[in-house]
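[Automated response] Your request has been received and processed.

Submitted sequence:
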Amino acid sequence: MSNKEQTIDVKPIVWTVAGSDTAGLAGQVADIRAMEALNTHPCMITTAVTAQNNQGVVALNALSYEQINSQFEALKNQLQPEAIKVGLLPTVDALNALSGFLQDYQGQLVLDPVLMSSSGKLLVEEGVMERYPSLFSKTTLITPNIPELAALTGINVCDEASIKAAADKLLEQGVNAVLVKGGHQETIELDDVGEGFVHDYFVSQSQSFWLHQEKQSTENTRGTGCVLASAIAAALAQKYSLEDAVVLGKMLLNQALRNGYSLTSEQGLQKGPLKPLAWPQETGDVPLLTSNMQNPQKYQFPACDEDKPLGLYPVVDRAEWLERLLPLGVTTIQLRVKDLEGEALEEEIRKAVAIAEAHKARLFINDYWQLAIKYNAYGVHLGQEDLEATDVSAIADAGLRLGLSTHCYYEVARAHTIKPSYLACGPVYHTDSKDMPWIPHGIDNLMKWQALLPDYPWVAIGGINLERFPRVVKTGVSGIAMISAITQACDSEAITKTMLELFKA
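Generated structure:
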């Protein structure tokens, strides 16, 4: 291969504006580990050359305005960042140097407000905390822990209500979004919230949610805030949405905690650093995602015949399609009606259930879960946008299966919390069947999601035609959902037979 033909691997650049750590536990050392684990290239702008060990900070050694600004000048023209993670700003000089650069900066910025050490020692000089709001208009996400949230807002953060009130105050001051880290939740009243979990609160101008994760039993927790904020910045640099970046950041943090290591066996000095490795691929790293602070409700949905894949999975809009396709050998089908209501809709669903039962087929009803329960359909399929208006418990109590659509990491975490009967990944390819803001996943991401959550049957959907069908089958998915490739075909029965044979092969 000639040099001209070689593919150049260009990694997104992420800056860390923070302090160094002589012990290699936190600060920019932790930032670099996290950024590289998510396949980005870190650049450093150092604000302080701290002297510390695994017992605490000995000295800050803040750099001057000129020293910090020269680093910005060296990087800004040749190594421009897709995202910036900001940590320790020990002096007004450091804050001013950053503010000067941000005047023309239009990228993503994750602000981790390092205000005090874990031992409670103040790490910033007088005047820094008061000037933090000057950074907020450029801040994509701020990630305070509970003591930092209280210090920045002047609110006594002691329970769920005060967490929300303090986060809202930061939004009012100009921040785009807030992620309140729950690692210090021993300082708040938990009420009915399980103490075996860590609860993080995300809020933006458009939505809010809680992330829940079982606490890991480890002493090696130095650099947790650095790893989380840096991982989020790295995900943003790769064009993930903010919500996806937060979920990915939490996943990498969970991985890093699990792989942390000690530096000594001497009693009281064992606390070591986190160790982020690579793109997280363990089911246990996926956080649970809900709309409130309480531990997620546990549902019990029946399985979809574990020894029998879902197979070719047509999505149709009328019961008459079942009469055409089920005799050909289709065993799973979805009725998605968008243009009927009232008695006409109910009759269509009743007919479809009767036809499916006659052929011993698995019929999922899209959206209309009450009618699916009434006529005892095999299951219900829901989009994420329908979850808030759905009584998920009623579906589970009725013994129906549940399938959920997922398009991004945020939705995967939300769906995993509910533990449905199957998960759908889409769009795999570009599709015109439905308006979607998501970039097509392609085969690689489809396989990545299956590896991440292997206990679910996965259904591939979106832009899959006859030519692409064999490639999707090779991924090992349980089902392949087809809409227009069947319903708009010149000979729907013929293409259905062909796809059935390809799936078996």
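Summary generated for your ticket: The chain has two domains: 13-259+285-290, 311-504. The mean pLDDT is 93.
If you did not submit this request, please reply to this message.
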